[in-house]
Here is the input.
Amino acid sequence: MSTPTIENYTKRIWRLEEESEDGNVALGALAQSLGVTAGTVTSMLKTLSEAGLVDYRPRRGVRLTNRGRALALHVLRRHRILELYLVNALNMDWAEVHDEAEVLEHVVSDKVLKKMEEKLGDTSLDPHGSPIPNREGVIEESRDIVPLVDVESGEDVIIAKVREQNADFLDFLAKHHLKPGTRVKVKSVDRQAGILVLKPMNEDAVTLSLAAAAGLDVH
Ligand SMILES: [Zn+2]
Here is the structure.
């Protein structure tokens, strides 16, 4: 049994696990991330637990079982291949494909997905620079990635990944040539003023707030 809601929960738990120190996700953090009440999460976790997808202990929090993780990565793989296909094959704007993929990831057939992969050829990274899990459900980051906000001024880096996928932010990045793969120089970092100035190769310098810069990873 797998519904869009179940798939979305496993995907969200996976992401929060990745961000957590010990691999456990607090119920409150999950509820907040999904924008639902703790009561809603509790009853959904019961369903997920009965389906063998999560291991939930009130004090410790929730974590995915191997089965839950396999489902999360299966959905994530579909999501990212869909995004790549919408951008590369259908020429859609990278700021609008996430919402489309959120819907299509639950309904696209394996047959259609395979055709998309064949058409794409290289399916290692999605349009936002995140690795796409392979068929076996393995996700690998081969680049040596660091948050942009940790880079010191004067360093040359390449934009690797956009964490924050808000459409306005993606529009802003595209307008200023700050897409994954672009080489940029960090001209200055002013931690007191909370700003960072980036200079993409052959383009004008761009000033970002540190809050916005936190949406980018580089290598
Ligand atoms: Zn997305």
User: Anything to note?
Assistant: The chain has a mean pLDDT of 95. The radius of gyration is 19 Å.
